[in-house]
Write a structure and sequence with these properties.
Layout: E1 5-11, E2 19-24, E3 34-43, H1 45-51, H2 56-59, E4 65-66, E5 71-78, E6 91-94, H3 105-108, E7 133-136, E8 142-144, H4 160-171, E9 180-184, H5 188-199, E10 204-209, H6 212-221, E11 229-232, H7 238-245, E12 251-256, H8 261-267, E13 271-279, H9 292-298, E14 301-304, H10 310-321, E15 331-335, H11 340-348, E16 355-359
Helix pairs in contact: 1-11, 4-5
The chain binds zinc ion.
Length: about 350
């Protein structure tokens, strides 16, 4: 086969913008493999941690690295064992949480994000999705996306959407329709969580942030009901607002997308007895301290969420096709590959509403 090249944004040095250059394009070598032509690739806050050099040990990062782990695209090449329904030309969402060469009880039950040796593209795997093509080691990581209206924007479903969906499902056992769920931190993932808590759990929601712009953006895009509430914790007494809204009972679940000591300290006591606190954000390097007295006295629990499974991504794709999750409104900026560095810096400065995506136009 002739050597093929592609354009990719390569991180060569921490805190420097990734360099766009031509690198060898991946090819299919084994029967179960595929190569996807990238259409959309979301810029995630984890990219900021990697770019700053803060994620080396936790995520097994090595430079040079092509960043990008939130991809959608079209099957370009498929090995001979790839089924007909994923033939070249098929639009797909790539389940990047799942790349894993290990078979154990977690991966065999579909929870590939719990792999003991994860090969996440753009993180522990050095070829990511800020590139024209992505190698996918097995077709089981591809979710068909026919009928998904805006394939570039739908890239968000594979990480921001999937993580929020996993968090909402973790809270489901503690939440009945009409109960209150608080979502702390209204970046891209938190916006998905507000939508999904309302539509999947039929919960009433309380969105909390310290940025007026982020709260305004949530009010504009999420479509909140009369009994939902947004709280500006930089100006209001969040405790009084949340206890007032819930009639003194507290919320049945907190989904914490910030994950620092202050959020846990402040919002865990606002949980109803037997409620659940779901930690998604890893805002401080060693994680927050758990106030165990609040857990014991109210039989409350704290859970962690890591990305999501490929079967959850398939469910989320169905919800998107059915119009139950609005991923398009979360995309606020569509950029070219050359602008990845600026996009990461903007995110680092906290200036991004919703989510930015790299869009590849044919
Ligand atoms: Zn991410």
């Amino acid at each position: 086969m002739p050597e093929r090249v592609m354009r990719a944004a390569v991180l060569k040095e921490y805190l420097s913008p990734p360099v766009v250059e031509e690198v060898p394009a991946p090819r299919v070598e084994g029967p179960h493999e595929a190569v996807v032509r990238i259409v959309g690739s979301g810029v995630c806050h984890t990219d900021v941690h990697v770019w700053r050099g803060e994620a080396e040990a936790v995520l097994d990062i090595q430079l040079p690295l092509i960043l990008g782990h939130e991809p959608s695209g079209v099957v370009e090449e498929a090995g001979e064992a790839v089924p007909e329904w994923l033939k070249p030309g098929t639009p797909v969402l790539v389940c990047a949480s799942g790349f894993c060469g290990v078979e154990d009880e977690y991966t065999l039950s579909g929870r590939h994000q719990l792999c003991s040796k994860p090969e996440w593209p753009g993180l522990s795997r050095r070829q990511g999705a800020f590139a024209e093509f992505l190698h996918v080691p097995h077709y089981k990581y591809l979710i068909p996306a026919e009928g998904v209206e805006d394939l570039a924007a739908a890239s968000l479903l594979t990480d921001a959407g999937l993580t929020a969906y996993n968090a909402v499902k973790k809270a489901a056992a503690s939440v009945r329709p009409g109960d209150y769920v608080a979502v702390v931190g209204l970046g891209g993932v938190g916006l998905f969580a507000l939508q999904l808590a309302r539509r999947v759990l039929a919960a009433r929601v309380i969105g909390v942030d310290i940025s007026e712009e982020k709260l305004e953006f949530a009010a504009k895009t999420v479509g909140l009901g009369g009994e939902d509430l947004l709280v500006d914790a930089s100006k209001e007494d969040a405790e009084a607002a949340i206890m007032g809204q819930t009639g003194g009972r507290g919320v049945r679940a907190v989904l914490d997308f910030v994950g620092v000591e202050q959020t846990l300290e402040k919002y865990l006591p606002l949980l109803d007895k037997t409620g659940v606190y779901v930690i998604v954000g890893l805002g401080s390097p060693f994680g927050p301290q758990i106030p165990s007295l609040d857990l014991i006295l109210g039989e409350r629990s704290v859970l962690g969420v890591l990305w999501g499974s490929c079967s959850d991504l398939a469910e989320l794709a169905m919800l998107a096709k059915a119009g139950m999750v609005d991923y398009k409104s979360i995309v606020t900026r569509r950029i070219r590959l050359e602008e990845v560095g600026e996009a990461i810096e903007r995110l680092d400065r906290g200036e991004v509403l919703g989510r930015q995506i790299v869009e590849f136009k044919p």
